[in-house]
């Protein structure tokens, strides 16, 4: 039972840390962030297993972590407020072609991030070609390009 409680506490702690870290943390992981994730997993491993390195304990921890993830998924589907708290909401960082610099700074999104998504999705090259850009719940940026007036 001690392992289950440790697993739940570690899961909750990591959930809170990554929620505070923001949407963009895992959406575009750099090499540095992948290394950091590996170090975190190694650090947390000792807290999970303590002195019990048995296969049974490992299976118990896996079932606990996966079960917690499944439970949270069910809760998110049943109660939208849980989903909002865990995943956040989409945030428009460009509206009517105007970037919201304060929101972009808060979300750690810059012009290059928006333009990179715009090039990938719509083939546009300049910020003034973008009508709307939204940082989605998963940290990806969705872009709607400006349409030319007069039927384009």
TrEMBL record:
Q: Where in the cell is it found?
A: Cell membrane
Q: Which UniProt keywords apply?
A: Cell membrane, Membrane, Transmembrane, Transmembrane helix
GO CC list: plasma membrane
User: Which InterPro entries does the entry mention?
Assistant: DUF421, UPF0702_alpha/beta_dom_sf
Pfam families this protein is in?
DUF421 (PF04239)
| Residue stretches spanning the membrane | 58-75
Q: What Gene3D superfamilies does the entry give?
A: bsu07140 like domains
* Location (main, coarse): membrane
Ranges of residues in domain YetF C-terminal: 78-147
Q: How does it sit in the membrane?
A: Multi-pass membrane protein
Query: Matching PANTHER family, A to Z?
Result: UPF0702 TRANSMEMBRANE PROTEIN YCAP (PTHR34582)
Family, similarity comment: Belongs to the UPF0702 family.
Q: What's this protein's name?
A: YetF C-terminal domain-containing protein
């Amino acid at each position: 039972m001690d392992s289950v409680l440790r697993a739940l506490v570690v899961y909750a702690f990591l959930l809170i840390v990554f929620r505070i870290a923001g949407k963009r943390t895992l959406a575009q992981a750099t090499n540095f962030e992948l290394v950091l994730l590996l170090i975190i997993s190694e650090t947390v491993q000792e807290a999970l297993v303590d002195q019990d390195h048995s296969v049974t304990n490992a299976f118990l921890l896996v079932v606990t972590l996966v079960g917690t993830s499944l439970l949270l998924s069910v809760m998110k589907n049943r109660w939208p407020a849980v989903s909002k708290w865990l995943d956040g909401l989409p945030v428009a960082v460009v509206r009517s072609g105007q970037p919201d610099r304060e929101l972009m700074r808060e979300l750690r999104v810059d012009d290059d991030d928006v333009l990179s998504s715009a090039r990938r999705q719509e083939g546009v090259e300049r910020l003034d070609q973008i009508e709307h850009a939204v940082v989605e719940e998963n940290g990806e940026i969705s872009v709607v390009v400006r349409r030319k007036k007069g039927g384009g």
